[in-house]
């Protein structure tokens, strides 16, 4: 029996991936790194530190330090996301249904806590969540299972009774490694990726999740 559902944030609850791609490209170009949108798209689901490391390794260091670039990139992207409030279709209805059923709800994200809190507040969904887990506060980020294990522990629910809902391969691996049932909702362009075979369930849209839990 499923007692908790733990969601990824970017690309799962909010349609932030296009914003991440565009905003990170703009940020690096403004800081004299000639990155392309295509490059940023290849790093889907990667932590901010990984993006910065990739750019520094490929294009060399400029005036700003790694730490400064990470902090400024996060601030830039968070501002763009909060401005857009890009909640995915059916998210609020699904969260409301799960809450009515007494299922615990959490987020397990690679993004920093201030971004997670800002998003749930600005999108009007904060009331549905029992916990927001940020891998930025842990020793390891996705695809390591740490953030999912941490979220389940905070909810007081065994991992075997949790759904991990994801849109990226790295996130799916993280949920699987935490011994959770993994539910993936891929973008249409990534639907045929053979790696989704590792997931327990593959859905077309978020609206299918309550029916899956009931079945």
From TrEMBL:
Gene Ontology MF term list: 2-deoxyglucose-6-phosphatase activity; magnesium ion binding; mannitol-1-phosphatase activity; sorbitol-6-phosphatase activity
Give the E.C. number(s). Answer: 3.1.3.22, 3.1.3.50, 3.1.3.68
List the cofactors.
Answer: Mg(2+)
InterPro entries in the record: Beta-PGM-like (IPR051600), HAD-like_sf (IPR036412), HAD-SF_hydro_IA (IPR006439), HAD_2 (IPR041492), HAD_sf (IPR023214), PGP-like_dom2 (IPR023198)
Protein biosynthesis: is it a keyword of this entry? no
Q: Which UniProt keywords apply?
A: Carbohydrate metabolism, Hydrolase, Magnesium, Metal-binding
Top EC class of this enzyme: hydrolase
**Pfam families for the chain:** HAD_2
Q: Does the keyword Hydrolase apply?
A: yes
What domain of life does the UniProt record list for this protein's source?
Bacteria
CDD domains from the xrefs? HAD_BPGM-like (cd07505)
The entry's family comment says: Belongs to the HAD-like hydrolase superfamily. CbbY/CbbZ/Gph/YieH family.
Name-wise, this protein is Hexitol phosphatase HxpB
Q: Which organism is it from?
A: Glaesserella parasuis (Haemophilus parasuis)
